[in-house]
Amino acid sequence: MSKLNVLVIGNCQARPIGHCLSQLNSNITILEPLIVHLLQQCDIEVIQQKLALADVVISQQLNDSYHIEILKTKNLRQQMGSKLVVIPNIFLTKFCPDLVYISSPEIGRITSMLDIYHSRTVFNSWTSKESIENVVNKLNDKYFWLEQYENEVIKSVDELQKRDTNSDLTVYDVIEQVAEKSKPFYTFNHPSNEVLSLLSKKILSYINESCTGRIKLIKEPLAVIVAPTFTGAASAFDYRYEATNYCVGFQPKVSDGKIISKGIRKVLSNLEFVKYSFELYDKTLSGSTLLNLRFTPSY
């Protein structure tokens, strides 16, 4: 039986999905994936070569704003026809509702204990000069989370379900299945391998290929950063898996008020995360750095 060449097009989820597919079915050869946020116009020739080699193309949705014309989903459908399988971008804030990027016009994205991710609650509490005790009380308060983040969570779920509707395969049902027993996301754009492996099984079924192998996992590919799960959020949004009281990030190195490296990877209790975040912000942020900040995503 000839091997099936499969090309995965997407963000940081593309490579782990390809890995899952290759382990679940030995008849599949995964071509080097196309990572959409790294591609430039000068890559067009390579893109065309890979599309020509592919028996199956699995692509996350790429709308009209994407900068490479040939990879926009509507154009891929015309070019690849039945070879194309469109999947949603697996993005959901429900399991880390206050996690954001924070950008400053002066220094760009601000670094935190979670690399480029921040707890908006912790950051806002720091700017308001609240006590750590008060912050911890808020983070453990179900009604605080409902008041501050319920609308954003609802909108994020709605947006993912819309992406499901516009795709050949759905993923929200997979996320809900995983969330019955375990944490389905490490950050809003980094799903667990259990989510990715179940989606990969759906992909194989869709292209009429069987699951003949098992996924051998040494470590979670997208769990370099593990956002904290706070008691209040778990209660507010009905997390059914057992919430942990720790997160995984880094201990940045600071010199003269500037971060010179993100430092060593570090496991922090939720309380340590709050304390160390306050200390890091005290050392590195002040004055004009805090003007006109941009928080993303908005839901």
From TrEMBL:
<protein>
    <recommendedName>
        <fullName>Polysaccharide biosynthesis enzyme WcbI domain-containing protein</fullName>
    </recommendedName>
</protein>
<dbReference type="Pfam" id="PF18588">
    <property type="entry name" value="WcbI"/>
</dbReference>
<dbReference type="InterPro" id="IPR041307">
    <property type="entry name" value="WcbI"/>
</dbReference>
<feature type="domain" description="Polysaccharide biosynthesis enzyme WcbI">
    <location>
        <begin position="6"/>
        <end position="206"/>
    </location>
</feature>
